[in-house]
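> forwarded from #structure-qc
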């Protein structure tokens, strides 16, 4: 602490801090460290906002001279030093969970393959939940000290941005990302040149370079085809997330699976496990087999050995979610590769077919992944059941229950999702707590978890059930302060929505004009719905009972309002019709002013919404929501789930910690299901949600509602984290028993 009272820092100390800040900006650790974010925000508040919370870009905006001058402010320099110190401590920490429980992966990491990773809004290379899960998996692996290296593609235009035309039709537009302004670094060889590898695709050799994204202690490599050696159409292979037609798709997947393994080998990795996060990466099975055949092994032996190295997670029971390629396309894209494997077309096609001899059957990536891995899992209990049923055809001799697909329910990375006001709430809570209860700090008092370490950091305990158990104790947190926190979060969302709607409003005609500063009511029960507009998620379901919903919205004593967001897949016109319908209602119907649609759903919008809404609505057509994760992000903010008992909520709901739509069954007929769910949704809303939210005591406090929030925090939050999830992956699947 010798610098504590020093007014000035030496030139070399300042240089050290500048180097440190640049290192920090290029490690996504800052995405789950509030103090880091505040430093970059303070450097340029306007830049932070305009550059969409991107520290690398902010550092490019601030001159080196300004930075040196600003660091002469002792208070600011102190904060920078503290953050850099915490960052170094994090990176150096040897006493991690994995050091004790899974040290073998330090030298031979898990290679985690995913077509998308969602870490933060400043690196928009994810399309949705799959990518966000991969990002949260990586963050937790880093926190736990688990050896993990990720593989994905660098999409130069990322995922599309959503605009809306005058007739409320989704319009996709793309912006070229500038690698220089992103939190990633080129992968270079000893000569300082880009490391370049190649994959044989169709008749061409396709070359790629790579970018490294630092995620705490973990690293992700993004493959990038934009190389001068390639013809233009191959340079564009990595332009967009799931871009183009099935030809682009199969080529992207060859790059991901085959190219990913080659890059890892070139960089000297020998992973102990190859984890395929969804079937997109399944071609890695073929590359691993090829390597073994190059050592002289037969195809059968090579495949058997490969299988022992791979595990596979399936993420959806929706048919369209499983890539299938025609025999012709496979022949075209993989013929050269096939000859390297020295197998026949029938053998190759057989690996992706349920019935290998059926020449008409397309090649399915999920089938390849299942045939090429030692174990497979679904992402919730019910999804496990559905997946075993779905793939029983691959194991015709086994009864459904014996089909070797298990499950690990998804989670979220808590600290990556927790909004600033909630963090400050806990920070303050524990600083006062410690002053008030010095006696608790006595060592050996195992019940007071915050007292275990002399320098307690609440953040290090935030993933433990004991931390959240405290929420059930009104002496620890009063109803009043919890309600105040809820108000703060709701207002933040509403003001965010007003700002966004104002920008969107540029496309609205005079007639649709709404006074944006009066849009939405900060006192009203706010219901949120945001996710991909896949039709099975049934975004407009709640408006089926339109007259009744208008009635609820117009109730002056107990008003209800809705915030919607979400993107439809560029080729999904049905999904776009849902968007059109909802925006139309928000502009022209009696719901105007009480229903808003926020354009361009992404991680930032998601964070605002799961934080600020009172209720998180989820009404998929059961059992198609394999898990769902956005509802898990809601928990730590005191936003309650109102959901069909599908995916994770079927396990998470216990009758006291949120709301259920319907029961643990669903009718066969889709029409019947839609009708029933719509009825049950309305019923839950009017009989449980609204009465509970508006049941206030003399002080104006909704005690019952807050009780439910407490239950949700105690039961849901610590259970549905990627900390728990990654530990399960290690123990059930990564480690061989
Ligand atoms: C969390 C998240 C998702 C996934 O949400 P679901 O509930 O699984 O639909 C999708 N997109 C973004 C931007 C997210 O943050």
């Amino acid at each position: 602490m010798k610098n504590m009272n020093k007014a000035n820092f030496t030139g070399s100390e300042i240089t050290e801090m500048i180097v440190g800040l640049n290192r920090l900006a290029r490690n996504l650790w800052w995405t789950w460290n509030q103090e880091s974010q505040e430093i970059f925000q303070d450097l340029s508040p306007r830049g932070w906002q305009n550059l969409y919370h991107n520290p690398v870009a902010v550092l490019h905006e601030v001159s080196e001279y300004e930075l040196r001058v600003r660091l002469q402010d002792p208070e600011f320099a102190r904060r920078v030093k503290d953050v850099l110190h915490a960052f170094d401590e994090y990176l150096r920490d040897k006493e991690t969970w994995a050091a004790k429980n899974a040290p073998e992966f330090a030298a031979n990491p898990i290679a985690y393959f995913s077509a998308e990773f969602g870490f933060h809004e400043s690196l928009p290379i994810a399309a949705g939940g799959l990518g966000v899960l991969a990002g949260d998996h990586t963050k937790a692996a880093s926190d736990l000290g688990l050896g993990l290296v990720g593989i994905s593609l660098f999409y130069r235009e990322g995922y599309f941005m959503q605009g809306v035309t005058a007739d409320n039709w989704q319009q996709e537009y793309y912006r070229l990302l500038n690698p220089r302004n992103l939190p990633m670094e080129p992968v270079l060889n000893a000569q300082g040149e880009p490391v370049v590898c190649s994959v044989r695709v169709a008749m061409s050799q396709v070359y790629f370079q790579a970018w490294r994204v630092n995620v705490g202690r973990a690293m992700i490599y993004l493959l990038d085809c934009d190389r001068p050696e390639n013809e233009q159409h191959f340079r564009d292979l990595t332009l967009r997330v799931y871009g183009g037609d099935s030809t682009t798709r199969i080529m992207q997947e060859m790059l991901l699976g085959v190219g990913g393994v080659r890059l890892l080998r070139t960089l000297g990795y020998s992973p102990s496990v190859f984890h395929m996060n969804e079937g997109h990466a399944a071609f890695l099975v073929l590359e691993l087999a090829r390597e073994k055949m190059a050592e002289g092994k037969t195809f059968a032996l090579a495949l058997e050995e490969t299988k022992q190295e791979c595990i596979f997670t399936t993420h959806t029971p929706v048919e369209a979610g499983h890539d299938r390629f025609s025999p012709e396309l496979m022949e075209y894209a993989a013929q050269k590769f096939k000859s390297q494997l020295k197998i026949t077309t029938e053998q190759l096609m057989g690996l992706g077919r349920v019935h290998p001899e059926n020449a008409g059957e397309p090649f399915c990536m999920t089938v390849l992944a299942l045939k090429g891995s030692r174990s497979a899992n679904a992402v919730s209990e019910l999804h496990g059941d559905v997946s075993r049923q779905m793939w029983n055809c691959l194991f015709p001799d086994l009864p459904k229950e014996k089909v070797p697909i298990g499950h690990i329910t998804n989670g979220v990375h808590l600290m990556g999702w927790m909004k600033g006001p909630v963090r400050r709430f806990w920070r303050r809570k524990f600083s006062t707590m410690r002053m008030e209860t010095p006696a608790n700090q006595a060592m050996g008092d195992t019940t007071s978890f915050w007292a275990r370490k002399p320098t307690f950091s609440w953040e290090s305990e935030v993933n433990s059930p004991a931390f959240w158990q405290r929420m059930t104790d009104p002496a620890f947190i009063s109803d009043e302060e919890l309600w105040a926190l809820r108000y703060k979060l709701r207002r933040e969302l509403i003001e965010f929505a007003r700002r966004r709607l104002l920008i969107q409003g540029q496309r609205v005609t005079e007639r649709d004009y709404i006074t944006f500063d009066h849009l939405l009511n900060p006192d009203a029960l706010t219901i949120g719905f945001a996710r991909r507009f896949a039709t099975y998620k049934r975004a407009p379901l709640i408006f089926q009972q339109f007259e009744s919903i208008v009635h609820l919205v117009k109730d002056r004593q107990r008003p209800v309002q809705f915030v919607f967001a979400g993107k439809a897949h560029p080729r999904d016109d049905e999904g776009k019709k849902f968007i059109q319908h909802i925006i139309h209602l928000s502009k022209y119907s009696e719901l105007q002013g009480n229903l808003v649609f926020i354009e361009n759903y992404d991680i930032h919008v998601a964070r605002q919404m799961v934080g600020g809404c009172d209720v998180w609505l989820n009404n998929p057509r059961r059992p198609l929501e394999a898990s769902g994760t956005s509802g898990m992000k809601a928990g730590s903010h005191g936003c309650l789930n109102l959901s069909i008992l599908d995916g994770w909520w079927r396990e998470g709901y216990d009758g006291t910690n949120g709301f259920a739509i319907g029961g643990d069954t669903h009718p066969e007929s889709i029409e019947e299901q839609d009708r029933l769910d719509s009825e049950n949704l309305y019923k839950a809303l009017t009989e449980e949600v609204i009465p509970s939210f508006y049941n206030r005591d003399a002080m104006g406090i909704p005690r019952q509602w807050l009780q439910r929030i407490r239950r949700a925090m105690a039961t849901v939050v610590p259970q549905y984290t990627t900390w728990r999830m990654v530990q399960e992956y290690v123990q059930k699947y990564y480690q061989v028993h």
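QC bot note: The radius of gyration is 26 Å. Residues 11-92 form one domain.
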